[in-house]
Amino acid sequence: MKIIKSNATELLEKAKSMFGKQVENLARQEEKVRALISGVGKKIERLGHHPTVAKLIEPVSVFIRMTKAHFNGSHKMAGSTLGLVLLGLIYFVSPIDIVPDFLGFIGFADDFSVVLAIYAKVKDEVQEFLEWERTEI
After folding, report:
1. Are 40 and 68 in contact (CB under 8 A)?
2. Residues 24-37: pLDDT tens digits?
3. Which residues contact residue 85 at a Cβ distance below 8 angstroms, ignoring those fewer than 6 apart?
4. What is the pLDDT of residues 49-80, one digit of tens each?
5. What is the DSSP secondary-structure string of 33-102?
């Protein structure tokens, strides 16, 4: 278990080094965030039947809802959480990452690891958001 956690942390650090600057710029441009969310939605539609992608849909969907709520002002995230969530969405949608998606299962394994590592890091805010969301519906 410790090896898996270590690998996920390592992948997360690599993702930050690959997309960190993009995330910083994106966090200040709501229009581009909307385009990112649209791209994530299209990838889910296109690949949602793939078993590995299907496992990513729930955490990615939560990230999308959190991001929308943040930008519409209904539920704000901490800046660090916003950065990690955007990193997860960028990494998920990007065809160019540590292991390219065209490699099938292996290509989605890094996406899965990065998204779940981010989900674990922001778990408290995710839980807070989900509780808030339940009261809003």
Report:
1. no
2. 777 888 899 999 99
3. 63, 66, 67, 77, 118, 122
4. 777 677 778 899 999 999 999 999 999 999 88
5. HHHHHHHHHHHHHHHTTSHHHHHHHHHHHHHHHHHHHHHHTSS---HHHHHHHHHHHHHHH-SSSSS-GG
